[in-house]
Amino acid sequence: MTAVSVEPALLGQTVVVIGGSGGIGLETARLARTEGAEIVLTGRDPGRLDRAATDLRAHGTAAFDANDPSALARFFGGLSGPIDHVLVTAGGPRYGRMLEMTDDEAREALSDHMLLSIQVARHAARTVRPGGSLLLVGGTGGRHITIGSGIASAVTAAMPALTASLALELAPVRVNLIAPGFVDTPLSAAILAEGLEARREELRRTLPIGRVVGPADVGALAVHLMINTAITGATYDVDGGQQFVA
Fold first, then answer.
1. Which of 70, 99, 172, 184 is the most buried (most CB within 10 A)?
2. Which tens digit of pLDDT belongs to each residue from 153-211?
């Protein structure tokens, strides 16, 4: 039997990962690289970024804070040519009672996801090839509203609508939202510290999939959304069924 050669699905394409020095961003970049993509990584920590870039043989890197509009503009303005896909993993949920937040804290809680998404979309309109994609990363945890979830719940509820609106405005560039639950990343380890293993065991016991979701699970979906040109304006949950048993 003659072997059939299958060409990598992202061969000749360029993927930019905003927040790509670790966790979900790094694993997505790794999987995209196996599909033939050239990778450009960004992150705030130059050391971590250099190590990730060496590991992946990345096409390029840039160390900056994605929530700095000027730095973000310089990065996109300095790209050597058109790109095909952008993944935004930078930023994170801000918890706390809304009435106890200062105005500056509230603005930061909103801008970490929503304003950053709009700013990246504005740059993507000028740099991403037609049919390419902008992928945003949100979450499912904020859907369970509690005292202290605050602005995180509001942002969680707003992100799917923002994504759909951007998909219309940015067309023919596609825009989709990935919403993970708990993902076993270095960031999760730093947040939970000594409670990490107990959380892992709880999830192994309660999740319908019987295991903890890892960054490669999210990365696999991200790469699929880059490849599948029929999908835009959609939100995809990747939580192993966590929201059904929480």
1. 184
2. 888 889 999 999 999 999 999 999 999 999 988 878 777 888 899 999 999 999 999 99
- 9 located within any domain: no
As a whole number of Å, the end-to-end CA separation of the chain is 50
Q: Classify residue 5: in a domain, yes or no.
A: no
Any domain includes 138: yes
Global confidence as pTM = 0.92
Residue with tokens 């790794």: 30
Domain hosting residue 176, numbered range: 14-245
pLDDT at 192: 80
Strand order in the sheet with 38-43: 60-63, 38-43, 14-18, 83-88, 128-137, 174-180, 235-238
In terms of Cα–Cα distance, which of 66, 6, 39, 5 is closest to 219?
39
Domain count, the chain: 1
Q: Pseudo-torsion of CA 215, 11, 176, 81, nearest 10°?
A: 110
CA distance 70 to 72: 5
Q: CATH number of the domain that 49 lies in?
A: 3.40.50.720
- Decide if 150 is inside a domain: yes
How many Cβ atoms are within 10 Å of 244's Cβ, its own excluded?
A: 10
pLDDT tens-digit series, residues 118-133: 999 999 999 999 999 9
User: How far is 190 from 66, CA to CA, in rounded Å?
Assistant: 21
